[in-house]
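A favour, since you know our structure tokens better than I do. It will help me judge whether the discrete encoding reads sensibly. The space below this message is yours for that.
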Amino acid sequence: MSVPVTIRLQPDDFDISSEIAALTQGRTDIGAVVSFSGICRGGEGADAIAALTLEHYPGMAEEEIRRHVDEALARWPLTAVTVIHRYGRVVPGDNIVLVLTASAHREAAFQGAEFLMDYLKTNAPFWKFEERAEGASTWVEAHARDDAAAARWGKS
């Protein structure tokens, strides 16, 4: 049986519980679903984020995400995967990304989700532009902590 994989890049919000229900409907082989949802944070003071604009390279982004989903499927006994990533302008409190991994057991589901999020954070072809509350705007640079988290999985 092939593993159901859903990858969507979209400007619109998503409903986490509906996505989990779609992933598990009619399935008796799933014993664990791990979900990670990334949300646009705001913050306080001069560093507060007023909005975040996410851009991507259409076609390439989906292919790259699929390549990493395939790698997760090769590494762990996952039984289903969903990756949804928004693009466009989001404001604090809005959903940005959802990764769902399902498996018969929790360990594979946790590891698969963490692997995919580390990839999305460091290497997926997305660019983020932050608008600050005080008016400054900047492109978000890569963070060494994200690179270090991804490095533990080896070359991908």
User: Anything to note?
Assistant: The domain at 5-151 is CATH 3.90.1170.40 (Aldehyde Oxidoreductase; domain 3). The helical segments are 16-24, 60-75, 106-122, 144-151.
